[in-house]
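Example 4.3 (complexes with small molecules)
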Amino acid sequence: MSKRIYLSPPHMCGEEQKYIERAFKSNWIAPVGPAITEFENKLAQYNAIDHCVAVSSGTAAIHLALITLGVGKGDEVICSSFTFSGSCNPIMYQSATPVFIDSEPESWNMDPTLLEQAIQDRIRLGKKPKAIIVVHLFGMPANMDKIMPIAKQHEIPVIEDAAEALGSIYNGRKAGTIGDIGIFSFNGNKIITTSGGGAMVSFCKEWIDRARFLSSQSRTPAPYYLHEEVGYNYQLSNICASIGLGQMHVLEERIKTRRANFCTYKNKLGEEQFSFQLEAENSVSNRWLTTVLIKSNFEHKVGEVLTQLETKNIEGRRLWKPMHVQPIFKNAPAYVNGVSESLFLKGLCLPSGSNLTEEEIGFIVDNIRSKM
Ligand SMILES: *Cc1c(COP(=O)(O)O)cnc(C)c1O
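Answer. The structure with pyridoxal-5'-phosphate bound is encoded below.
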């Protein structure tokens, strides 16, 4: 096979073009336009949440969530360590300090015991964290039954980074709607895409109104341009929202396909040499990416498998390198247990696109096996 197999490429369904054409015909290229509100309403409805603002990226959504919650200079914000840097860069934009929490072995997401420990420790050191950013990594819901009561007890708001977890379910509720604020990403590699985009959702209207205000240069209503605070140009464009409207038609289908990819990989690879991210009883992951851990001799094998895949023009990746071992965050406080560092050493992400064929999965598996 000569065509490159990507990790998670965009997958259009055809409807997008119609919505884009509609935008062109009506000349809503502005970048504002009616498709934005329509997309926001569709997202809110899908997630069974009251309020939604569409923005230019998931990172922008997290940034706005932090500002909305009043995070500023010198504040501390707790964040999952095992994640993509987009989760915590916005903490730095606010001149605040990230406090990283390691993973629990079950979900690979934020460890509730370490969270409790960290909050008590930060309070003891004189600073109560201003917010908690919990990531649902690779689409797998975090242990919210344990995390939310801890956050509530200490009265610290929770931002769910559901950038990878649109459509995942926890206790019958959509990921991103369990905490105080949820964020999604529609980057090209996510389960659906607007080519680039994001959203912030909440049951609190004031917060979404505030984020919307900040996202459009903080223009105070007046007969002229009046600005009383710093604003951002974080709006999603009408064209991107149009792509999103098309993609919403196939979101459920995309989740089914990604979950089927996971099952095919798991069946073909088996559990003798590999282990997989486990879905808890009360969780349904959208299986955005299929990830595997290599059980033995992973120090050599992860690298060898990735090299083998690359020679066959297949894009594989290591799991996210934890934030607390990233050079940029080396001075940030971290509460660790070794879990995320171990996952990083043992794991790899496999091509997981919804346009992947069963034949391609077979080809990928054969190449993985050839190095085991
Ligand atoms: C993709 C991603 C983001 C950032 O989203 P962008 O739309 O790329 O800015 C944040 N957090 C996680 C966990 C992500 O995977």
